[in-house]
Give the backbone structure.
Amino acid sequence: MEVYSVDLQGKKIRVPFSYQMPLSRGGLESLLHLFSLSLIFIFTSAATFEIRNQCPYTVWAAGMPDVGGRRLDTGETWIISVAANTTPGRIWGRTNCSFNDSGRGTCQSGDCDGVLECKVSGSQPVTITEFALNQYANTDFFVVSLVNGFNIPLEFSPMAGCDQRIRCSADINGQCPVELRAPGGCNHPCTVFHASVYCCTNLSSCQPTYISNFFKEKCPDAYSYSQDDASAMFTCPGGTNYRVLFCPSGASTNRSRPSPPTGKDQGNFCLLQLSSNK
């Protein structure tokens, strides 16, 4: 479990994240561990999430928990209600899907066990927004995570009342390092190399790498490696309603991917990355 320190109203709060997917990072998992801090419980109503597809292609939106999934053609919007105190929550998009009348099928990216109505997290590579609602001091916490890779440009923002927007609209698919390329997106290096330097298996020595910096340069507000909380975690008051945009205005919509490299070329890339981090 990864733990992040957040300075909230003059108090250091530790926010635990867990891994919801194989090789995953950056998922909000349980409530804040406050130990000696006293809690004030505030009763709040559900939050409204407006999920809109602005991509020039169909996106099959998905979410957890108890959100399911929905096909969104270009310009379509899906409005959902997310229960107060939800933690962890996730929303993501799937591409190149095909489902039968019973809701069984497959997606090229973001697939969730081959069903339209998702009960588990999407397969990598996938761009994810994660959130925990109505936590300490009735505060919402949220991130956009690239630690499961990238498949669709995404923006997460409050509808009103809070000036916090996370936008990841760069051409990551088009500029993805050759060894990270995958059908439908761009993998995180942990998925490809399974090395501690990328997977942060030792959290005490976890540092950004040459490749995580690629993601950070493209999307500065997004979460790029397992200890990237200082620049990638955002908050709004509890009770805020939110908007999720696939392909926000000005975003690249590149989905074409050459085949991932194998053999000698892959080994050379790995050596290059390791040497650049010495």
